[in-house]
Amino acid sequence: MSSDGFVTVKSKDLDSNMATNLLSGAKILLNCLVQEGVECMFGYPGGVTLPLYDALYEHQIRHVLVRHEQNAAFAAQGYARTTGKVGVCCATSGPGATNLVTGLVDAMMDSVPIVAITGQVSNKLMGSDAFQEADTFGITRSATKHNFLVKNVADLPQIIHEAFYIAASGRPGPVLVDITKDVFQAQAHYAPVTEIHLPGYRVFSEGHVGQIRRAAQMMWEAERPFVYAGGGIIAANAHDELRELVETLDAPTVCTLMGLGVLPYDHPRFISMPGMHGSYAANMGMTHTDLIIALGVRFDDRVTGRLNAFAPHAKVIHVDVDPAEIGKNRYADLPIVGNAKKVLPKLTAALKELKPEMEGRKAGARAEWRGQIQAWKEENPLVPVRSETEIKPQHLMAEIDRLSGGRAIIASDVGQHQMWSAQLIRYNEPRLWINSGGLGSMGFGLPAAIGCQFARPDKLVFAIVGDGGFQMSIPELATIANHALPIKIIVMNNGYLGMVRQWQELFYNNRLSQVELTSFPDPEKLAGAYGFKGSTVEDVKEMPRVLEEAVRASGPYLLNVKVSSFENVFPMVPAGGALNEMVLRPPQPVEV
Amino acid sequence: MQQVISLLMENKPGALMRVTGLLSQRGYNIESLTVARTTDPTLSRMTITVDVEANIRAQVIKQMNKLINVLQATDATDGPAVNRELILLRVRTLQGTRTAVLKEAEIFGARVVDSTAEGFALEATGDSEKLDEFVDAMRSYGEIDISRSGIVSMPLDGKKLRLSAPVPLGAAPEEVLEFEEAELG
Question: Of the four, A30, A307, A522, B103, which is 20 to 30 A from A207 by CA?
Answer without folding.
Answer: A307
